[in-house]
Amino acid sequence: MEQHKAAAEAAALLATDPAVVRLVDCETDRLKDARAVEVHVADGAGTTLFSRRFNPGRPQDPGAIAVHHITDAALGGCPDFSEHIATLNYQMHSGSRLLAYNVPFDHGVLVNEWTRALPGQPLPRWLDDRSRWWCVMRAWSRFNGFWDLEEGRYRHRRLGGTHTAAGDVKALLDRVHTMAAAYTRLPSPRARRVADKVLSAAPEAVVVRIHCNRGAATAVRWAGAYATVFAADFERVSLSSTDAGTLGRLVAAAHPQAAWPRSHDFHVATGQLGLSPDVHARGYIPEDDREFGTVWSSASHE
User: CATH assignment of 2-183?
Assistant: First the structure.
């Protein structure tokens, strides 16, 4: 299962010596033919190794400023990228595992800046060898497990960072830790039995969202529970009202310490249960929910 593979890859990265891991993020002046206006590099422990703003030598696109809020005026006194390329190269060359949230974009920005600063010079090995790079966005998308039928790939997920280079590096490291934690928290036998019963009723199930009747006057808080099942393409799986009630009560009863009657998500691949966002909120769209099926309530873990 792709979720398990992504989690295993993340766990392997965290087991690597942090000194040879590099996490990098670039904020840029535009999307195409982009130049860096801010670059942040950290090691695998999150320790900052390089953090600089740069003057791209041209006006930024308004759309880029709207994202990262770094104005042209704020960059007026900043150096050109070429003035710090040696320092950046020194910090990156010893990294054997290089991570960015969107590797094609961030790697492309750094290649563009290197060739602009040193025209005709070969790329350093850390830029030339793409096998060193690991795309956290692609792994995070596989981990969430929702397939885009039109694009023929797992649906890309937003990072959810601050749109500063330092903030986004912290966010991508948090994503790696989240995936790795799911790998180390293997489903308990009881959680596995629950997952098996879910899959017997709904083989396509990826996430089961459990709703409870908030007004139910009963000592058994999950007595009125019912389930909404989501498949890998974010489509709801059709269930009879009987099956929806049966699955809801099954999952809820297996987690009596959860914060019922609040809604919860049961992640079938990992056997974990976590609090759901408010699915009844006006305008709620599951595919825009960055935490859909991935943020686990510690009180709910088996």
Answer: 3.30.420.10
